[in-house]
């Protein structure tokens, strides 16, 4: 299936994108029961959390083209909110068979070294690769966040995603300042 929208266009969007996260088989069924117009009105792209969906590849290959919107594939490491194996090979096994149906994939920065071959394969298929960092307890200090951005650049990610817990308005202000303060990835 050709990509519905190029990953480059998604990553260079001039407006915030709405991501519909599908993490349960029931949610996928509900979304597929909607009309294409309803799906397009609800979000710009769908993130399929493969580590949570736990559907077989054949079911997913049949469902993804019916979504009619760009798809971001994710198989999260347990330390960053995933369910399943810590071994990169287990997450690669979820992602790789569906790469040709994806617009984007999300790889945690912690897994970049172990998932380099998958990242290269994705790029060969014109699938964008996001490097993600998650902290569900706090917004880390600027040095940690800058380090995450630098790691994403070092590994050649197309964009970086910083997902942190905001303990107050100062955390939000620090994130905004960080993202406007220097040359960065999308």
Protein model, in words:
The protein is α/β, with parallel strands linked by helices and 186 residues long. It is globular, with a radius of gyration of 16 Å. The chain has nine helices and six strands. Helix 8 links the parallel strand 5 and strand 6 (159-164). It has a six-stranded parallel sheet. The model has no long low-confidence stretch (mean pLDDT 89). The protein has helices spanning 7-11, 25-33, 36-42, 50-53, 57-63, 88-95, 116-124, 142-155, 169-181, and strands at residues 19-22, 45-49, 71-74, 104-108, 128-135, 159-164.
Q: What shape does the CA trace take?
A: globular
Rg: 16 Å
Query: Total number of β-strand segments?
Result: 6
Helix content: 40-55%
Strand content: 15-25%
Major β-sheet profile: 6 strands, parallel
How far is it from the N-terminal to the C-terminal residue, by CA?
Answer: 26 Å
Side by side, the strands of the main sheet go 1-2-3-4-5-6
Mean pLDDT: 89
